[in-house]
Design goal:
The complex is a heterodimer of chains A (79) and B (354). By secondary structure, chain A is mainly alpha-helical. Chain A has a single domain, classed as Orthogonal Bundle (Non-ribosomal Peptide Synthetase Peptidyl Carrier Protein, Chain A), CATH 1.10.1200.10. Chain A contains 4 helices and no strands. Chain A is globular and about 25 Å long. The chains are: A mainly alpha (79), B alpha/beta (354).
Chain lengths: 79, 354
């Protein structure tokens, strides 16, 4: 499940911004890389593909600052 | 700041939109989106059709055309106006204010007030609270509020964040004193520390327009703009709306002792369908009560979107029976404001295409 969420999120981000390179050994910064349009598309796809509902006030830098933070946030929503 | 107004109501609203329509499909090539992204943005963000003025058309042109139709059709006696408030970010001149140009062309009375306010997406709320405040003075009985913007003229062609959704429009709202009117409850907030989240850097006294201010640069996200253009920090504005609007509406309900489920309609500024859906979900408001799709047909016309929703999303007969509506505007300043009021028995609810 955990692997599926991580892979799915990376896959979604790649479909939105193909130029972002992921390094499995370390976290990938998303803050300042994704713009507001990217974030909107990301939220829409995460909700659609992973079946979670993200509240308005949760679309905030603390949850979208990096790949690891986003993964942890989505997993907390899935539980 | 919590507000309450007595003896004040809206008696008519007219929307004025340019007949020139531009489709996202026709200008997609100008932006750095791949076809898959474009299709998603069309669906999620409402990038579709927008109304924009022809080159050279100004804010006063839209407003004057609207007033003339109201006057010629007998729906408004222009000589009865005690005040004219114009809310715009796109004045015809730095000075004088656009209200004076409208005053001239319409031949309005001398014993009245003309007032210009520089506001954008919260401009309908700010304009109405100003109009309602004037009505506390007994010689102000009828006030015309004009919200108008032609921001399309200041958005760069390569600005993929803003240009696909920017529309031009004007709205004329007539506000009158009425001893029988239900109270109007309001809430206004400002955070000047975030003034640069939405701005046009050049053109005022700080940075005069010059060949240098017309030079375009491209940001890491692919937006190409000059200092002469609208610059929106999309992330900052997005976070601001998501964080500030829901508590503002909750505070308005608390102060007015009104129950959210008793509100007939939520008429919010229309940045895009995604943000509005999220706000509705957070507030627990059903989408049947909150129009979210204005931008797909007309674009985002700043302070005009709330009256535009009123004029385009409801049948003319809808407000024959008074309805409680909750309106909210949010944007430049940063400013956010809301009003809870009864709307009904309107003399006119028109859409004029010019």
């Amino acid at each position: 499940m955990e692997k599926r969420v991580n892979e799915k999120i990376a896959e979604i981000i790649q479909s939105i911004r193909p130029e972002i390179k992921f390094d499995s050994a370390q976290d990938t910064e998303l803050f300042g890389v994704l713009d507001s349009l990217d974030i909107i598309l990301l939220v829409e796809e995460i909700e659609k593909q992973l079946g979670v509902c993200i509240d308005a006030d949760q679309i905030a830098p603390e949850n979208f600052a990096s790949l690891h933070k986003l993964e942890a946030f989505v997993k907390s929503k899935s539980q | 700041m919590n507000l309450c107004f007595e003896r004040a109501k809206i008696t008519g609203i007219q929307l004025i939109v340019p007949s020139r329509e531009i489709s996202f499909d026709s200008e997609m090539a100008a932006y750095s989106f791949n076809p898959q992204q474009s299709a998603k943005l069309k669906q999620v963000m409402g990038y579709d059709r927008r109304r924009v003025v022809e080159d050279g058309v100004t804010s006063s042109d839209l407003a004057i055309a609207g007033f003339r139709v109201l006057s010629e059709s007998g729906q408004l006696d222009l000589r009865s106006l005690d005040a004219l408030i114009v809310v715009t970010q796109t004045p015809d001149y730095l000075m004088p204010g656009t209200s004076y140009l409208i005053h001239d062309k319409l031949g309005l009375r001398q014993d009245m007030l003309c007032l210009d306010i520089n506001q954008g997406c919260a401009g309908f709320i700010v304009g109405l609270t100003t109009a309602f405040s004037l009505l506390n003075q007994q010689n102000f009985k009828r006030v015309a509020l004009v919200n108008v913007d032609v921001v399309s003229r200041l958005v760069a062609e390569g600005d993929r964040n803003s240009r696909p959704i920017i529309g031009d429009a004007a709205a004329i709202t007539i506000v009158e004193s009425d001893a029988r009117a239900e109270p109007v409850y309001g809430n206004l907030k400002v955070d000047g520390t975030r003034w640069d989240a939405l701005m046009i850097p050049a053109g005022g006294m700080k940075i005069r327009p010059s060949p240098e201010t017309a030079i375009h640069t491209t940001d890491p996200n692919g937006n190409s703009r000059a200092l002469d253009n609208l610059i929106m920090k999309g992330d900052a504005v997005f976070n601001f709306v998501m964080q500030e609007v829901p508590p503002m509406i909750e505070a308005l309900m608390h102060e007015s002792k009104f129950v959210l489920s008793n509100v007939d309609n939520f008429l919010f500024h229309q940045p895009n369908p995604f943000m509005l859906k999220k706000l509705a979900s957070k507030l627990g408001v059903r989408l049947e009560k909150m129009p979210i799709d204005l931008v797909r047909k007309y674009g985002n016309s700043s302070g005009v979107t709330i009256p535009a929703v009123l004029c385009t999303e409801f049948d003319a007969s809808y407000f024959e029976q008074p309805k409680w509506v909750c309106m909210a505007g949010f944007g430049v300043g940063l400013t956010w404001g809301s009003l809870l009021m009864q709307l009904g028995n309107l003399s006119f609810v028109n859409v004029l295409e010019i």
